[in-house]
Amino acid sequence: ITNLSMLNSIDDANYLIEEFTISYHYSASLTFKKTKESPANKKVLISAPVFKTKNEFDIAPLPMSEKESRAIANMALKNSYKTELLIAENATEAYFKKHAYQSNIIHIATHTEIDKRNNNYSTIYFHPTSGQKENGKLTLAETYNIKMSPDLLTLSSCESGVGNLIKGEGMISFTRGFSYSGARNIVFSLWKVNDKYASDTMVEFYRLIFSGVDYSSSLREAKLKILKAH
Length: 230
Hints:
Blueprint: H1 28-31, E1 43-48, H2 63-78, E2 82-87, H3 93-99, E3 105-109, E4 112-113, E5 123-125, E6 137-139, H4 140-143, E7 152-156, E8 164-166, E9 170-172, H5 174-181, E10 186-187, H6 195-210, H7 215-229
Parallel strand pairs: 1-2, 1-3, 3-7, 7-10
Antiparallel strand pairs: 4-5, 5-6, 8-9
Helix pairs in contact: 2-6, 6-7
């Protein structure tokens, strides 16, 4: 680890991931919670609502999320994964809730909105389904009851791991809700991220995973590659 007293400025310091591969849990109770077995089939579910310039939620479009999702889908197919790619209007909340249990890798590329007053109302955006009760806004409260058990769930969206820190409980965020529902490993963001850089990072992350590298090391190597490139 760099000795800060020997640096001329903080800009000369290394990022922690340059020295270590990092993974962590935010709750001891969840660490020892018995998890469901992941689906035996090799199946990937990828959901990217993308959104048009004008949409019912008045949120910004995510054009790079489509490129990201298609690249990941192509890699999954080449590695003999049964792959389901949902783009734009096909990426609905209703479909995700109904079919999440079938996949052992789930990738969601979308917007997240954090409600700082009440985390239970924080939202992951999908598309709504006409004539059904699902309005396209998956709340944190709803994630505790989704039937799922993926070995990897990636939330490729801004601040998807942000929430309130509760003493004795840990971070109350989407990662907690999905962990309770059965996700074994979750990748998330604590910051607002650039659409293109997020896309580049995710594509490299999955390239490494499909080549046999473990999740933590894959994420570290993907981040380092983006850091060096930019």
